[in-house]
Design a protein that fits this description.
With 375 residues, the protein is mainly beta. It has 3 domains: 161 residues, Immunoglobulin-like (Sandwich), CATH 2.60.40; 74 residues, Phage tail protein beta-alpha-beta fold, CATH 3.55.50; 120 residues, Sandwich (Immunoglobulin-like). The protein contains 5 helices and 23 strands. The strands form 6 sheets. Strands 1, 10, 11, 14 and 23 form a 5-stranded antiparallel β-sheet that branches. Strands 7-8-9-13-12 form a 5-stranded antiparallel β-sheet, with no helix packed on it. The chain has a 5-stranded antiparallel β-sheet with strand order 16-17-18-21-20, with no helix packed on it. The radius of gyration is 24 Å and the shape is globular. It starts with a strand and ends in an 11-residue tail after the last strand.
Length: 375
């Protein structure tokens, strides 16, 4: 069956400009142009530019790690660089905690069917039936089955920093070929969240009432996305790192105070400023507890980038002010190199775009197995 993918906007006239605006603006860029470079060396060069270390199956094999591969990356985004690694190795690459990419491991939210949206991609990762068996006490001995259709969407930004731009994901709609719209299975929204392993990816899971038994496919499944009209990058560059003396910098409406740890392997960074527009709600506060808001990189005295581990320790909102605490240090692979400079960048969204409708057409449904609920 041919699966047709379409993008439909709430306002058709707004689609071209809105989609074109969803370009990669922030985050690290990768350049590596080599026709035959050992895989281990290539992944080290790419990883150092991304501030992400690669490990996994091919690097554990001496022959595979030394195998020459070709890369032609010029100012590539994080997502493009990872796609190139997958193409060169023939293996999936999954993001893992602590700044790692695992070559040969499947992602938590696999790419099934995708719709490009500028430099973003919206994936329909899963579509499957769920069955719940229950007893009806009004009629003793009667067993009912609650049948639902579960959908999982993954919204993939070109970088961690760019992902700050996504503000809202609607509940999905689905229509059969006969024109019947499937009802939502719950009155409440299961909500959407970011992937803790990969801050550049959001996911949304929702449930619809199962279609009629004679329905083999859905004519359309759609979801609306709302983005920030723009994202502001605030930069804090600490050119001198002095132990024991807090360093304060101001950029825009925000300030950052750095306390350098002994050994000059990193420090504690406190960032304070107004709560971003639209985030002054309990749900908004929860989304502020994400490491996507800040990107930081340490450098040695020669200006060479060090692998930098960054972790949010605390976040709080008080009197309209957002206060976040971050712990950063050089990774163990660079433990012998003292840090001499810190370049930290905070990303703050402003305004909103009209909702952008993303639709998947002619989706074949999986086979039913209602007896699974009683087994």
């Amino acid at each position: 069956m041919t699966r047709c993918l379409t993008v439909v906007a709430c306002c058709l006239l707004a689609l071209p400009s809105t989609a074109q605006q969803l370009k990669a603006e922030f985050g690290p860029r990768v350049t590596l142009d080599a026709e035959a470079i050992p895989l281990r060396q290539a992944l080290e060069q790419i990883g150092r530019q991304l501030n992400r270390r690669f490990y996994g199956q091919p690097l554990n094999d001496k022959d595979l790690a030394a195998k020459p591969v070709a890369f032609h990356l010029r100012n590539a985004t994080m997502r493009q660089a990872v796609d190139a690694v997958e193409a060169a190795t023939g293996l999936p690459v999954a993001r893992y905690y602590g700044g790692y990419y695992n070559v040969g491991a499947d992602s938590q939210y696999p790419r099934r069917i995708g719709v490009p949206l500028g430099d973003w991609t919206v994936w329909l990762s899963s579509i499957r039936y769920f069955y719940n068996s229950y007893l009806y006490f009004g009629e003793p001995g009667y067993r009912g089955i609650d049948e639902r259709l579960g959908l999982v969407f993954a919204i993939e930004a070109p970088s961690d920093a760019d992902s700050v731009r996504l503000l809202a994901i609607s509940r999905p709609t689905a229509v059969t070929a006969a024109g019947d719209q499937l009802a939502l299975a719950t009155t409440y929204s299961p909500g959407w969240d970011f992937d803790n392993r990969d801050p550049s990816t959001y996911y949304a899971t929702d449930y619809l009432k199962a279609p009629a038994l004679d329905c083999a496919e859905l004519e359309e499944v759609a979801v609306d996305l709302t983005f920030a009209a723009r994202v502001e990058e605030l930069r804090f560059v600490f050119d001198t790192l002095t132990v024991g003396k807090p360093l304060l910098l101001v950029s825009g409406d925000y300030d950052a105070e750095l306390t350098v740890t002994p050994g000059v392997r990193g420090g504690i960074l406190s960032v304070r400023g107004p709560v971003p527009e639209g985030f002054d709600t309990p749900q908004g506060y929860a989304r502020l507890r994400s490491e996507r808001w800040l990107q930081a990189r340490l450098y040695d005295a020669a200006g060479r980038a060090l692998y930098t581990d960054l972790r949010m320790d605390t976040t709080t909102v008080k009197d309209g002010q957002w206060i976040s605490g971050w712990r950063l240090e050089t990774a163990f692979t660079d433990a012998g190199r003292a840090a001499a400079k810190l370049d930290a960048r905070l990303y703050v969204p402003h305004g909103t775009t009209p909702p952008l409708r993303v639709a998947f057409s002619h989706l074949g449904l999986p086979l039913r197995d209602p007896e699974a609920a009683t087994r």
